[in-house]
Design a protein that fits this description.
The chain is α/β, with parallel strands linked by helices. It has three domains: about 190 residues, 3-Layer(aba) Sandwich (Rossmann fold), CATH 3.40.50.1380; about 140 residues, Cytidine Deaminase, domain 2 (3-Layer(aba) Sandwich); about 150 residues, AICAR transformylase, duplication domain (Cytidine Deaminase, domain 2, 3-Layer(aba) Sandwich). It is about 40% helix and about 20% strand. The protein has 20 helices and 23 strands. The relative contact order is 0.07.
Length: about 550
């Protein structure tokens, strides 16, 4: 059945004049109300007022305009039911084939913290949602258009066939119900907060997809997209190569990309993540150099890991991962030592995330491996200000941890050389993205370029994070580097000198002076922590006694 009549009532008038001009050219009669009717007439278009159709004037400052049987009858009548059509004819009600509506800008108005209740209430649309719901319910007969982005498709179909296809009308109906649902949710949140002093939150996720399995193979899992988010994220990434993403791929890829997002985007950086912890983290003059240094932070754990960079991936980057001219190794423990075994298939990587890829590098990776998942992430539009975490029976919502330091206050007699503040920023960023209790040993390997040498993650006490994990891993890395560089002399003396220059960062305050004393005994001479313990003075005293420089940052970075 060809479309003959359209009802147009919009708050967002983007593109509406041109759209209705085309509807008019196609022979549709245009019904409208209030400000929309005026705008259309000012645009030179013939318009019939809804009040002329209903025989009833707009009343109560426009609060009642379209809530009338001659409007809703024309929207709800089923074209396939003769009794519906007979009722319309008997009551002199005309069919309405297109409804073009968007709602009063309630969200925009209430986003202003100074808005008063009366203004907010006057921006609650009544007639609009009623018509949207009626039209969407009867989508087989009525095309309901809520978004200017859909105007071109609707015009194309009308021009070709005289009507909007059933499949398009179905999609438009879903869009209308989503709009009214979100609109009602916004009203609920505002009025609950304003009238009942009750905080409520409504969350909507779409584009659901079934994953192969969950965290473990016996668990079912799905992924849903927050369609309102404009943040640069793995969730919004384009998959350029590889198998579908798994549950664990999403979790680890998110951890890796969020880590590199926290660093200066002008400085190439790479994170290598395993089970959400950055086992490798480094900056470089190029992304390839940063990758090499990050990989060397823990090449044993990097095997089968997830890699993220904040730079475009080039051939040098791709060659390091899969190049035939590069020697690739996996590691196994024999007699208490890690032993390298050369592999000819390149480094095993689950996921690679980057803002872009040079065509040559992407083609190379695609040819080398059908398995590696290659993700291109979009640019940041707006950073999501909140983070959400589900617990059994509830949801935790918090501000995103955006600020790294509140201060950089040196509290000891020994001070920090100039480059250590930049090293502190890098090392505490690594700490922030490592599971608590976390302790990180970072170093400057070239002027202005930094590398995590030892990570202590997820321990119930931070002395173990430092002594048993971060320090031990740093020594392993140093020994491998010493051998690779063919250093002469005693390894212990060279390693001690390297440790002396590293910076130790703790994600939370040191409750006792034991961490300082243990670290100093292992050769650490520079330390940063948030401070704030009742026994800060004990740690300061220990630092002064042992020749350690310590700074307080003022902000804790627990990560659970």
């Amino acid at each position: 059945m060809k479309a003959k009549r359209a009802l147009v009532s919009v708050s967002d008038k983007t593109g509406i004049i041109d759209f209705v001009k085309e509807l008019h050219k196609l022979g549709l009669e245009i019904l409208s109300t209030g400000g929309t009717a005026k705008a259309l007439r000012d645009g030179g278009l013939p318009v019939k007022d809804v009040s002329e159709v209903t025989g009833f004037p707009e009343i109560m400052d426009g609060r009642v305009k379209t809530l009338h049987p001659k409007i809703h009858g024309g929207l709800l009548a089923r074209r396939d039911k003769p009794e519906h059509l007979e009722a319309l004819q008997k009551l002199e009600i005309g069919l309405i084939d297109l409804v073009v509506i968007n709602l009063y800008p309630f969200l925009k108005v209430t986003a202003d913290p100074k808005v008063d209740l009366e203004t907010a209430i006057e921006n609650i649309d009544i007639g609009g949602p009623a018509m949207l719901r009626a039209s969407a319910k009867n989508y087989a007969g009525v095309a309901v258009i809520t978004d200017p982005a859909d105007y071109p498709l609707v015009l194309k179909e009308l021009a070709e066939t005289g009507e909007v296809s059933l499949s398009t009308k179905g999609r438009l109906a879903i869009k209308a119900y989503r709009l009214t649902s979100a609109y009602d949710a916004a009203i609920d949140e505002y009025l609950s907060r304003t009238l009942a002093q009750e905080e409520r939150i409504h969350l909507t996720y779409g584009k659901g997809q079934t994953l192969r399995y969950g965290e473990n193979s016996h668990q079912k899992a799905s992924f849903y997209l927050d369609e309102a988010s404009k943040d640069s994220s793995v969730a919004r990434a384009e998959i350029l190569n590889g198998k579908e993403m798994s549950y664990n791929n999403f979790v680890d890829a998110n951890a890796a990309y969020e880590a590199v997002k926290d660093l200066d985007p002008k400085v190439p950086a790479v994170a290598v993540v395993k089970h959400t912890n950055p086992c490798g983290f480094a900056t470089g003059k190029t992304a390839a150099q940063a990758l090499e240094r990050a990989w060397e932070g823990d090449p044993i754990s990097a095997f089968g890991g997830v890699i993220a960079t904040n730079q475009k991936v080039d051939m040098a980057f791709a060659e390091f991962l899969k190049g035939d001219s590069v020697k690739h190794y996996s590691y196994q423990v024999k007699d208490g030592e890690y032993v390298a075994q050369e592999v000819n298939t390149g480094k095993f990587v689950e996921v690679l995330i980057a803002p872009d890829f040079e065509p040559e590098a992407l083609e190379f990776l695609q040819k080398k491996s059908k398995m590696i998942r290659v993700l291109k992430v979009p640019e940041v539009e707006v950073v999501d200000p909140k983070t959400l975490r589900a617990i059994t029976g509830g949801l935790l919502v918090q501000d995103r941890d955006m600020q790294l330091f509140e201060k950089f206050e040196v509290v000891t007699q020994k001070t920090f050389p100039g480059h250590y503040q930049a090293l502190a920023t890098f090392t505490m960023t690594a700490c922030k993205h490592t599971k608590s209790n976390s302790v990180i040993l970072g170093r400057q390997y070239e002027p202005g370029l930094f590398q995590v040498m030892g990570m202590g993650a997820g321990q119930p006490n931070r002395v173990d994070s430092m002594r048993k994990l971060a320090y031990t891993k740093a020594l392993e890395n140093l020994k491998r580097e010493w051998q690779r560089l063919g250093k002469s002399g005693k390894f212990e003396a060279w390693a001690q000198q390297e440790i002396n220059g590293m910076l130790l960062a703790s994600d939370a305050f040191l409750p006792f002076d034991d961490t300082v004393r243990e670290a100093a005994g292992l050769g650490v001479r520079y330390l940063i922590q948030p401070g704030g313990s009742m026994r800060d003075e004990d740690s300061i005293k220990a630092c002064n006694e042992l020749g350690v420089a310590m700074a307080f940052t003022g902000l804790r970075h627990f990560n659970h």
